[in-house]
Task: inverse folding
């Protein structure tokens, strides 16, 4: 059965017009006015609504063993929540333990996701240690498994963090293979020293998380990564950039010709360090790394997002509930790091970006969808509305008004960091490859239809 999205205002990264969209099967096969469609076609009336390309979240953690526990969502709960919020493709991270064979991690992530996702997904392949055997496995994974992006953690020393020798080798391989490397940029050694100083001084609450990883620690990590990119000629992507100083480092590198891209998060645009200072351990809900920053950074991040200096807007969805957060009740260093937001990114960016005039509607589509598709080799299959593209579409009703709440969200979480925040707009319909998965913000579709998307290297 075909699908007709009728009479909506189509908005992509670079175009805006009213038309019908028809998908015969999984891909868009016609765009035009008053399209004639076969009998039995499913019709979604989009009159008075926007039609966007399905949104892409390039940074999520669905299956994540981390800091002595596991992130709470499954591929089922996470993709349901993502779809309800308009995200139709996500890029998760496949992360081997330091001494684990990369293929073994691929097998684990496969077992956690295959047949359990309700929308399409892919992974960045994390490198936590490099030797010749790891290098050989990475070559195979890029070639045979269709994973064309790496991930390195410059933070988390003694856990996921990578040393400089491994970083240099990983970037050299990435350059050879045309793979882009994403990086968590914080100076791990300095973080350890600062954490130790706070703990020794008896400063143990969540409010000390940010001062233990100050903005300059992230700026230094960003410079370091950029310098290594320059030295190797590799392409890079700074994940979850939180502050002005770090942004200046990445931008300087761009101006020097380094092929470097920047991602920020909806959390950094809307929440600040005072949330982690909330009393009675409430602040633990707002502990993530890099930490929420001083509010003054937000204007800079919004402006950079609008200008395209920041390329993408992601979530770094890493859900740990209030019971798990208690692991750090006597020592902030043990609070599992992460703030859930997979479901809320798009509507919060709309409400606080587009609706307030801070973010142009095309930059909204670009930063929440198209740019990630282009950087990570999903375009034009994903990230746009065009003949031959997957019929991943969001029909957005801008007139709906409501509020965010743990009572109504779909993430497997017992809190929402944006509890009570007003929202404008919701997804009237969300489709995945021509199949309606969400109606009026609720999942109504078919479970398990999500596929792993193979990607080709393209950063040569
Ligand atoms: O606090 C965070 N960001 N948790 C998830 C792991 C990571 O660093 O992305
Ligand atoms: Zn990170
Ligand atoms: Zn992350």
Result:
């Amino acid at each position: 059965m075909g699908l007709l999205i009728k009479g909506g205002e189509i908005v992509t990264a670079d175009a805006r017009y009213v038309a019908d969209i028809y998908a015969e099967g999984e891909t868009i096969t016609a765009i035009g006015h008053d399209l004639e469609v076969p009998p039995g076609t499913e019709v979604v009336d989009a009159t008075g609504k926007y039609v966007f390309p399905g949104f892409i979240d390039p940074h999520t953690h669905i299956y994540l063993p981390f800091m002595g526990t596991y992130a709470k969502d499954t591929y089922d709960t996470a993709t349901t929540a993502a779809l309800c919020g308009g995200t139709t493709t996500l890029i998760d991270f496949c992360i081997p333990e330091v001494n684990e064979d990369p293929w073994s991690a691929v097998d684990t992530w496969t077992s956690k996701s295959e047949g359990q996702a309700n929308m399409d997904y892919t992974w960045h392949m994390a490198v936590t240690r490099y030797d010749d055997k790891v290098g050989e496995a990475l070559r195979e994974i890029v070639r045979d498994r269709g994973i064309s992006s790496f991930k390195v953690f410059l933070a988390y020393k003694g856990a996921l963090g990578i040393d400089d020798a491994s970083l240099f080798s990983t970037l050299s391989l990435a350059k050879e293979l045309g793979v882009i490397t994403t990086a968590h940029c914080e100076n791990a050694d300095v973080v350890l020293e600062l954490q130790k100083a706070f703990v020794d001084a008896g400063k143990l609450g969540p409010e000390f998380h940010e001062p233990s990883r100050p903005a300059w620690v992230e700026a230094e990590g960003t410079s370091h990564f950029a310098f290594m990119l320059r030295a190797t000629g590799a392409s890079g992507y700074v994940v979850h950039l939180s502050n002005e100083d770090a942004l200046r480092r990445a931008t300087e590198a761009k101006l020097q010709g380094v092929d470097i891209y920047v991602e920020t998060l909806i959390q950094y645009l809307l929440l600040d360090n005072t949330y982690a200072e909330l009393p009675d351990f409430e602040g633990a809900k707002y502990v993530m790394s890099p930490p929420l920053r001083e509010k003054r950074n937000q204007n800079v991040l919004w402006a950079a997002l609008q200008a395209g200096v920041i390329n993408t807007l992601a979530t770094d969805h890493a859900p740990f509930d209030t019971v798990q957060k208690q692991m750090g009740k006597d020592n902030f260093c043990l609070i599992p790091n992460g703030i859930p937001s997979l479901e809320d990114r798009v509507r919060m960016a709309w409400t606080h970006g587009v609706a307030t005039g801070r973010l142009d509607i095309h930059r909204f589509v670009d930063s929440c969808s198209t740019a990630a598709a282009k950087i990570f080799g999903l375009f034009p299959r994903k990230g746009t509305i065009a003949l031959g593209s997957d019929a991943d579409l969001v029909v957005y009703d801008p007139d709906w008004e409501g509020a965010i709440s743990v009572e109504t969200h779909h993430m497997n979480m017992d809190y929402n960091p944006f509890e009570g925040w007003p929202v404008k707009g919701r997804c009237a319909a969300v489709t995945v490859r021509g199949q309606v998965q969400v109606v009026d913000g609720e999942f109504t579709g078919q479970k398990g239809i999500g596929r792993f998307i193979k990607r080709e290297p393209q950063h040569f």
Remarks:
- The radius of gyration is 21 Å.
- The longest strand covers residues 393-403.
- Residues 61, 184, 240, 288-289, 316, 318, 337-338 surround N-(aminocarbonyl)-beta-alanine (ligand 1) (CB under 6 Å).
